[in-house]
Fold:
Amino acid sequence: MEYSFDWSVLWRYREQLLNGFGLTLALSLLGLTGALAVGLVAGAAGASARRLSRAISIGYVELARNVPLLVHMYLWYLGLTALRLPAFWCGVLALALYSGSYVAEIVRSGIQSVPAGQTDAALALGLSSRRTMTRVVYPQALRIVAPSLAGLFSQLIKDSSLASVISVGELTFVAGAIEGDTFRTFEAYIGISVLYLIAVTAVSRAALFGLRGRIVEPAMRY
Amino acid sequence: MKGLTTAFFVLLAVAMLGAVVAPARAEDALEAIKARHKLIAGVKNDTPPFGYLDEKNEVVGFDIDLVHEIAKALGVEVEFVKVTSPTRVPLLVSGNVDLSAASMTHTREREGAIDFSITYYTGAQTLLVPADSAIKGLKDLAGKTVAVQQGTTLEKTLAQAAPEAKIQPFRDYTTAWLALRQGRADAFTGSYDVLRGFAREAPGFQIVGEKFSLEPFGIGVRHGDWQLRNAVNAVLQDLWTSGRYQEIYRKWFQVDPDMPIETWPKG
Structure:
């Protein structure tokens, strides 16, 4: 093809690329924190014995999960115009609510996959039902779902690229800007792909390691 | 180890890309067009009045009419391929389209990636604001949020013309327009004729202030396709001398062109 690559473009735009990378990480980490908070609660509610909790959990999961993330972005950005919430936080909100529904489903199935005998045994030993959950069921459930959650986290980093449509200056947005300025489309998008690759690899490894080592082990004291 | 893995993936990505865009071409695009009796043109479908979809869902506009004229002059059929900002250059350099008439502003920087025809339209940048806005021109933009399409010459020009303004770039024109309508932005900057197109669809908005930049549009061709570029340049000049260009211009902009197309002596 009649095209010569010019990778120096990436170096010329290094400042914007670094800023974009930082925003992608911030967006993903905050989105992830929100998704975990929402998802753990909704997941526990989904596995609860109370019908009302289950209904609310299912309602949220279905609503949030069955709407495309792109629509979530527009919805929170344009829908919350009155609040004048900055685009960045609309992006975080969209990511947290959307990914939170996946976390909820993973957590719910994790809790339900802990054998009923564990609950029976804990109750028979005299643990309160609350302690049965927090000390016996949840820790085992988390260990089961750790790999799925790690997978979801790497998905979330890539999903954060959709925040570019609401003018959050993250990596994909920066690639668009470089493309517009220079018409160096290949260089810009291959460049950010490498940065995504690094971020996703690092974060999913760390997540897997962290979930295994930090959250599950303390439960073994019992 | 991680460095190695990354390097491997980069190579892989480049290799995959190479495989997609591989077909080597020795001949000029002009010969290819004549051999297949068809001109394949990349055009926009979201930028009225240059290239957009009409009620029948067909792509129409100023750019499209010019491409029809180019095809007619070359004596070939024409096929339109819709392009967006991330695809317009890859589709062109990979040979999927012969030329790109996608309301592109010709800049020296962009010449590094593709070549351009002579200027076929000159845009001027202005501001669109709500009718009751206090903004009357560039001087009133201090501290105001101005929506603009990202990666455009518009964005840079505004930053120079109104350094006090808060510039909010969006990935496409349509979202920037939505931001203005929703009150997310105080003003929306863009090409005069594009803004006029938007203002027509929603009353309550008006164009204010002077035109503060010139945006020369060019038709993009691949580096090295000088025969095609010469042919396109010749057609544009003939359209001007025959008066056909002026007709097309009036059809889409309702006024006479304020900038002539440069014409070169035949020899």
